[in-house]
Write a structure and sequence with these properties.
The structure is a single chain. The chain has about 110 residues and is mainly beta. The protein contains no helices and nine strands. The chain has a single domain, classed as 3-layer Sandwich (Rieske Iron-sulfur Protein), CATH 2.102.10. The model has no long low-confidence stretch (mean pLDDT about 95). It is globular, with a radius of gyration of 13 Å. The two termini are about 15 Å apart. The strands form two sheets. A six-stranded antiparallel beta sheet has the order 1-9-8-4-3-2, with no helix packed on it. The chain has a three-stranded antiparallel beta sheet with strand order 5-6-7, with no helix packed on it.
Amino acid sequence: MIETITRIPVAHYANLKERAGYSIKIDDKEIALFKLSSGEVYALENRSPHPKGGVLSEGLVSGRFVYCPVYDWKISLVDGMVQAPDEGQVRTYSVERKEDILFIVL
């Protein structure tokens, strides 16, 4: 079986502010984009894994982590893992940059 990789243009790199979250929607997926002070850009599911949820694009970014704005859970932007003592994981998405355009890879 051949797996198809889809690259979807989602934002201009220059338009993203550092340490701020941006919400985008691709089909039925809501994705949060985060540009770090280092210039790296990460994308993950825009919902905290807490049973009552939380919109991660509204969270505080510190280093390579975002804090859920509702429950203050610390979530890695690299692998989506919730940090102890809390538990859980959110889906991450690969981000590619070609010149000023950012792509989500599905």
